[in-house]
Write a structure and sequence with these properties.
The chain is α+β, with helices and mostly antiparallel strands and about 500 residues long. It folds into 3 domains: about 180 residues, Endonuclease, Chain A, CATH 3.30.870.10; about 140 residues, 2-Layer Sandwich (Endonuclease, Chain A), CATH 3.30.870; about 60 residues, no CATH class. About 45% of the residues lie in helices and about 20% in strands. It has 15 helices and 15 strands. Helix 1 runs antiparallel to helix 7 and helix 13 packs across helix 14. About 40% of the residues are buried.
Length: about 500
Amino acid sequence: MNPSTATASEPAGSLISARSLAELAFSRAAGAPLVGGNSLRLLLDGAENYAAWHTAIRSAAHTIYFENYIISADTTGRSFLDELTRRAAAGVKVRVLLDWLGSFSTPRSFWDPLVRAGGSVRYHNPPRLSGELSWFSRDHRKSLVVDGRIGFISGVCVSDVWLGDAKRRIEPWRDTGLELRGPAVTDLVRAFSEVWAQNGTAIHREELAAIPAPGHEGSVALRVIATAPSVTGLYRLDLLIASLAQHRLWLTDAYFAGTPSYVQSLRAAARDGVDVRLLVPGGSDLPWLRPITTAGYRPLLEAGVRVFEWNGSMLHAKTAVADDRWARVGSTNLNMASWLTNFELDVAVDDVGFTAEMAAAYERDLTHATEIVLKKRRRVRLSAQDDPRELSKPAGGSLTRATAGALRFSRAVSAAMSGQRVLDTGEVFTLLCATMLALAIAVAAVIFPRVAAGIVATVAALFTVFLIFRTVRARALGKRKRKAAQPAAIF
């Protein structure tokens, strides 16, 4: 054998082997095979997703499998109810699966027209005495499959809030989904049927067998990752991607609360020079989770991870972009509930073109976001959304956590009193808590005036002592500074 020929052939063989090993690692971590021959269409926000869903539902000839965490009994929900009812009346087999907790406000009577037309509706995992703590497990998936030929996966629920309200100056929620055609749609059918069987009688084999296997629709290879409680496929894959990313890892998440292992993976990647970015909401519909998210900023920022807060009404997307050929879209948030206890559904795409499209969308999102940075004293800077004065403040200052909280509260009060800006959910919660506290104090003062007077007097006395202490301390500090500033005597 010619030595030069052998040397030249070895790198090619090694490259093929490395690629095969990588695909094997991804498949084992995710618990899902790579399926080729698909086409994808990126759908942004509620308007694009809803329009595509309506079009697909109207085209249904045989089956509609619709699964979502929240389907509200509002204008948006009724529009889908009407479409589904018409298709069921036309003989299409319509099955709707929604989560009991997510759709708690949607009464079962809402679905009466669909049921009368021949459709089937199930609520996932309602509380029961025999269930112990299993009711914590939620069906957080968002999918739609029509005739087994076209599927949709997203983070979008069915509610008016995803469309916003222009009259009240409320922006639509920012979210991401995709339309899927090709062989991988079969995996969506299988995923739906498994959760449907968890909540009652399974779908008849004859019905599933009658759904034709879709042919090739394009050249995109992807994995449909359908996770269930205690099945940590996506968690393992997220850790693997964070470990293997070489150039960039751009994440968007609505309810970030990373585990120590995942945070360490992000920190290690950033320290190795990977461009790691995390885009999260500036104001959340779950205000109790936001302090947990913001508390995790410091270790990320110190390692070089760039953190951005969305400036709109709510960022609800769950996406990832890694290097130049891998992207993820779906329902899974970067927290333990999604990774470990919920039924979730995501698509991990191995395609250069789709990844470039996702990266471009991410860069557009960053133009509508505020970057969080560490100041000189290593405090986390409050974003411009939380403090409008930050836009004009010089780079030298910093805000303590107490000051940041006070500014958030004053901003909420100002918005409520002036009516110049619609309150986001977190601010409404803050004002509600403040209102209830003020009401409780007022009621207590009326019922127990002497006790209330004693409390007020005690607080005032403590505040006076505090002010005296601060005044004396500031005066002493001023004297020391003036003395230090005097020139030394020359002998």
